[in-house]
UniProtKB/TrEMBL annotation:
Residues covered by the Histidine kinase domain: 421-529
Membrane topology: Multi-pass membrane protein
UniProt keyword annotations, A-Z: ATP-binding, Cell membrane, Kinase, Membrane, Nucleotide-binding, Phosphoprotein, Transferase, Transmembrane, Transmembrane helix, Two-component regulatory system
Membrane-crossing residue ranges in chain numbering: 6-30, 171-191
InterPro entries: HATPase_C_sf (IPR036890), HATPase_dom (IPR003594), His_kinase_dom (IPR005467), sCache_3 (IPR033463), Sensor-like_sf (IPR029151), Sig_transdc_His_kin-like_C (IPR004358), Sig_transdc_His_kin_SpoOB (IPR016120)
SMART domains membership: HATPase_c
Protein name according to UniProt: histidine kinase
The protein's enzyme class: transferase
Keyword rRNA-binding tagged: no
Length: 532
């Protein structure tokens, strides 16, 4: 079924059920109320007639055995009311009046009169008499001696049914009007929904959303859609890769402020003021071009679509080649160094100077063994311990002295917490080693490392002999792509990842320049957040 047919069926079926239910309840209530009203009206009329002196006198005469008729008097009273008939009987149920004169003096037909004659109670019943089925209301005729007769006021059911049907027809017209009004409203609502959905069926809408997502992800430019409050409403996979380095997923970025991912793009949107514009910004050491397209509606601007892509300048390839060449030279130097060590060992073994060979190997490994023993003794967390030892070897290769404090301590944590700790320790040590190595011409390069979880927090502190953070970058050093390193390398990710982990585990991150011109980074994490 189409959406229009489905909605029409559901809406009209619902309206029909409601209208039919209301009509039945209304008709039943109307009928009961009308019949109840007839009964009360008949009893009131019977009570009035029972107090009539002529009626009382006639009952007395009939009870004494003398024939009597008050038909003319009763018929005169009945003609002024809506009653079908009025019958007066004596205490023996002999009729004293009746619309049919031949039945006057005959016994009343029906046993429903006797509770009134014998017990003196008012009653209402539906029974068949000489005139047909009727609603019969009885009340006693009394004098000082007691019950001397009864008055019956009747309403023929045929006449009553005609009156009820007339009322029901009037109510039915109202119900039909309400039903038609509901159908018209349903048709208008369905037409409005179809226009809102551009005459598309739900399956087509879902398919178009999937196609929209696939098309966005297939585009090699970064695309971000935001609303008028700069909250991200849609983003493609390339934008996720460039803005968050795939640290976050699309669901974690959507409905979040754009400023959390890029302050530069957020500022560009503010400066655009509803106009299509183009600007440049940096992510790390890559320069990007961003095109801002306003989304307009009759009510005004409702957001922007931002399309950005790398600005491949003339020097881009040259920088990549330079970086690759430097890396190849480094590998060549390391290969040459290890070749020299192997040649030394080979010469000692050929000269049968085994003790000298053992001492040479021992000399090479003593430093590593001491560092390894210190790490194993203080760091129980195997993931972090292995990482620290790897970074110690890297520092050795860079000719940077890495000191691991003797009072370090770190226990075991769940795998997810270990992953966070590895991210923190790895990025902070890498930054510290590179900073110390970059400043090696001015001071002896060194890095001090300390980690402890003895109290309610995990404390991580790294000190390096680097030149420190540039004052111009202090307020943005934790943003993605911002780095104080030289331009030939792509950086600006490490501290961004560190800040994400610190925020995730309700921690704090701070850095300062010490009195001895070193840079100290300090991190505190809540242990309870790590173990949840």
């Amino acid at each position: 079924m189409t959406l229009k047919s489905y909605l029409a069926l559901i809406t009209i079926s619902t309206i029909t059920i409601i209208v039919v239910a209301v009509a039945l309840v209304f008709g039943y209530s109307l009928q009961n109320a009308y019949l109840d009203g007839i009964g009360k009206r008949g009893l009131e009329l019977a009570r009035v007639i029972a107090q009539d002196d002529k009626v009382i006198q006639a009952a007395r005469i009939s009870n004494s055995g003398q024939p009597v008729s008050i038909e003319n008097h009763i018929e005169n009273l009945r003609s002024k009311t809506d009653a079908s008939y009025i019958v007066v009987v004596d205490q023996n149920a002999i009729r004293l009046s009746h619309p049919t004169e031949s039945l006057i003096g005959k016994k009343f037909i029906g046993d429903d009169v006797y509770p009134t004659l014998r017990q003196g109670i008012d009653s209402t019943s539906i029974a068949s008499g000489s005139l047909g089925e009727a609603i019969r209301n009885f009340t006693p005729i009394k004098d000082e001696t007691g019950i001397i007769g009864a008055v019956s006021v009747g309403y023929l059911t045929k006449t009553t049914s005609e009156l009820i049907h007339q009322h029901l027809r009037e109510a039915g017209l109202l119900v039909i009007f309400v039903y038609l009004l509901g159908v018209i409203i349903a048709i208008v609502l369905i037409a409005k929904l179809k226009r809102t959905f551009l005459s598309l069926e739900p399956e087509e809408i879902v398919r178009k959303f999937k196609e929209h997502e696939l098309i966005l992800d297939s585009i090699r430019d970064g695309i971000v859609a935001i609303d008028h409050q700069q909250y991200v409403t849609a983003i493609n996979s390339m934008a996720i890769e460039w803005l968050t380095m795939n640290v976050l997923s699309a669901s974690q970025v959507v409905n979040k402020p754009l400023s959390e991912q890029s302050q530069s793009l957020s500022h560009f949107v503010l400066e655009a003021k509803g106009q299509m514009t183009q600007n440049k910004f940096n992510l790390g050491k890559l320069e990007f071009i961003a095109n801002l397209y306003p989304i307009k509606s009759p009510k005004g601007d409702i957001g922007y679509v931002i399309v950005f892509f790398p600005d491949h300048g003339k020097k881009s390839l040259e920088q990549e080649l330079t970086t690759t060449k430097n890396y190849a030279d480094l590998l060549r130097a390391k290969t040459h160094e290890y070749a020299n060590h192997l040649n030394v060992l080979s010469g000692m073994l050929q000269a049968e100077r085994y003790q000298d060979a053992i001492e040479f190997l021992q000399q090479e490994s003593d430093g590593d063994q001491a560092a390894l023993r210190r790490i194993i003794k203080t760091i129980e967390n195997s993931a972090v311990a292995g990482l620290i030892f790897a970074k110690h070897n890297k520092a050795k290769d860079l000719k940077v002295d890495m000191l691991i404090e003797s009072d370090c301590q770190l226990g075991k944590y769940p795998p997810k917490a270990n992953e966070a700790l590895v991210t923190l320790v790895g990025n902070l040590i890498d930054n510290a080693l590179l900073a110390a190595w970059s400043n090696r011409l001015l001071t002896t390069p060194f890095v001090k490392f300390y980690i402890s979880d003895r109290n309610a927090h995990i404390m991580l502190q790294i000190e390096d002999s680097g030149a420190g953070v540039d004052e111009k970058l202090e307020s943005r050093i934790l943003d993605f792509g911002v780095s104080s390193k030289h331009n030939t390398e792509q950086h600006g990710i490490g501290l961004y990842l560190v800040k994400k982990v610190v925020d995730q585990y309700h921690g704090s991150l701070d850095w300062e320049r010490s009195e001895v011109n070193t840079t100290v980074f300090s991190i505190y994490l809540d242990k309870r957040a790590l173990t949840r």
